[in-house]
Amino acid sequence: MELGRLSTDALASFAAFADRLNFTRAAEDLHISQPALHVKIRKLAETVGRPLYTRHGRRIALTPAGEAVARLARELDARVTAFLADLDGTAASRLPVLAAGEGAYLYLLGDAVRHGVRLINGDRARTLTAVRTGRADLGVAVLDVLPADLATVPLDAYPQALAVPADHPLAARTTLALADLAGASLVVPPPAGPHRIALERALRAAAVPWTAAVEAEGWPLLLHFVSLRAGLAVVNGCVVPPPGVVLREITDLPAVPYYAVHLPGRDTDPLVAGLLTRIRAALSTGSPPCTSRSPSTSTPPPRPSGIC
To answer: Which portions of the chain have biased composition (kind: Low complexity) (predicted)?
Structure first.
């Protein structure tokens, strides 16, 4: 690769594309045409000598090379910003950026994100991509497999629980086992989601028959359908049920571990360290609405892996 051929304009354009993973929206952000953006990214990929993204149907994902290029683009932008600020005799500063999913923001992070933090909302895959590309300084996600290319910091673990109407027969129990779900009609996420995959695997291993009542995305919607008596739902024990719905821990399902993730070598970076301090303080003071519990003895520890 000829590094001299790397265009700063193309790098900046690719960083905008990496944020959106959508050519139309990225082109609008850059105030250029979509064909022009396609050309910039194609030429950048030719210079790098590797594909920068893959397309699966309508879904676009960055390749490892694409993540590295996006990270380089943001590092260069930060250096230029710091250089210009130094010339002007001013201090270069920015707010820390945190990426996390809906559940983490609603039920885990509490006051840690109230002031002085830029927020990115996305599922686990998008959270990890935001950290890998340098878009986010820190990410928070549930990880059952630890990514080998990122530094991981355990935050807390929560049991999995069955959400049931308060007058349901299972609500009279303090804890449940998977076998108690036999024949249940469940509100579940779409089939491709990690929670759905893990739940189906556990129910199949326990030989528990069940049926899907409704497919819905996000804890609030799953809990809403439970409150409407459309079915029962297995949820993260960290969630707060709506009125009329109670949670009962399922003892033979593994606890759900939350981790903070950041790029290697940024442990002492004030932006990363400051965010971690705020999150730990929120967890220790109980400002998140959920209460952690010790993981079940059957909970397998997360495995280091390059696959997320």
So the answer is: 284-297
